[in-house]
Write the structure tokens for this entry.
Amino acid sequence: LIVRNNMAEDDSSVVLVIVMKVPVWGKSKTRLVPAFGSDNVLELAKALAVETLRRFASSELPSEWRRVVYFAPAEAEADLEKLEEEAGRGGHYEHVAMRPHDLTSSDLGSLLHACYDQVVAGSSDPKKPTAIFVGSDAPDLPAAAITSAAEKAIAGTAVVHDATDGGYVLCALPPTCPGGQVFDDVEWSTKRTAASQRAALRRCGLTVAPPFTRTTDPPVWEDVDEEEDVHSLAKRLEKRTPGLCPTLDVLLPKL
């Protein structure tokens, strides 16, 4: 069963991009190490990746969408393939490695700029697709939030789905997006990141959907960066449909 959620007829012209650094011991989710230890944090980072790969290539989202993992480091592709196999999603994703010179910048905007130009603008599709960017820090983001963002972007409105810490968990860009420059001059890693991203989109001439709040449907969402975020994720999964993120269901109670 393919859940189409009343998508527009051209939903095949949607590319879903997961921006992911393949988990590495001692280098992934380092802010969580004091609370959980390096070994547990590595397992958590892998579980977040597995469940993101599982859910975003499931029947919750249209099968016609092109799916891409924009990953680093390039030499970790075999590890990425293992994560996909663990998720039961081997062969569902295209792999595009972050170019080494893009990784020299600590500015996430530079990576996303390069990602858009490489994956979306560089597509063989003569019509530029709608592009949806997500990370692996919000594996339980409702499918309805993703399909709703896609619908708005297909219709010409960019969407930035706010995170509770001021960042964002999703950015959907319409076919009219001028290019990767929409990620330039954004205030990264601050409480103003989502607002700053919306401002950057408007500077590039795009119509932008209003901010998400705790009372909107869907609401502002939590990603996983700090210790309290891990506990919040565990509580959310307890309330959701059993089996939504099975790897995390097993791991989180042990942390």
